[in-house]
Every structure is written in C-alpha cells, then in structure tokens.
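F.,

This is the one I mentioned.
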C-alpha cells in the first residue's frame, strides 16, 4: 500500500484508534493483536498462552484509518525471525510483515 498521502502522527500527538483485540489468520494458526489508544507506544501480540509486546515506532492516519508499525520481538516460534510490521486498522484489519524491504507475508482479520 502506498502510504505517501498518509499523515504521520508525532510521538507527542494522540492517535484516537480506540481499544480492540483483532484476530488474524496465518499459516502458523490464528493469533490476535491487542491495541489500546491509552498505550500509544505498544501493541500486544497474543499467540497461544504467550503475550508479546511490540513497540510502535510509526503512527499514521488517512481518512480516519490508522496505521501502526514497528518491530516484532520474541517471535521465534511464530515468525522465526524479527520483522517490521504494519497494521492497517481498516475493516477488516490487515497486518504486513516486512524483512529487508521485502514483504514476508500479510495476515487478514478474521
């Protein structure tokens, strides 16, 4: 997705993306991402009985749709490596995992 027309939201600016748990389907099975606008610097990946905190390095908005992105962490079983993630909080939501400018995969909200 071309994000050149998206507006970047500064670290000190509030992004009103709400609070929700988003379920995704992946080749490794289903998992969820928890986001809360009261914690602008983190998203939480819920995989089985494990909860992983991923930092949010970039927040963007376009026509009321938000994009959050940063680095995955602690995902050896789930992703087998660290990736740059981008979550587009559309309906349905989409999460993309990037490695060295190459799209590794996209998972879609279920």
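My design for it:
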């Amino acid at each position: 997705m071309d994000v050149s027309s998206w507006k970047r939201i500064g670290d000190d600016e509030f992004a009103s993306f709400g609070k929700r748990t988003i379920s995704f389907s992946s080749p490794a099975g289903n998992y969820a991402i928890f986001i809360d606008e009261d914690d602008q610097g983190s998203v939480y990946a819920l995989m089985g009985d494990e909860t992983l905190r991923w930092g949010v390095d970039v927040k963007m908005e376009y026509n009321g749709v938000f994009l959050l992105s940063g680095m995955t962490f602690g995902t050896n079983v789930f992703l087998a490596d660290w990736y740059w993630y981008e979550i587009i909080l559309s309906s349905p939501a989409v999460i993309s995992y990037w490695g060295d400018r190459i799209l590794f995969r996209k998972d879609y909200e279920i």
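Residues 18-109 form a domain with the Lipocalin fold (CATH 2.40.128).

Talk soon.
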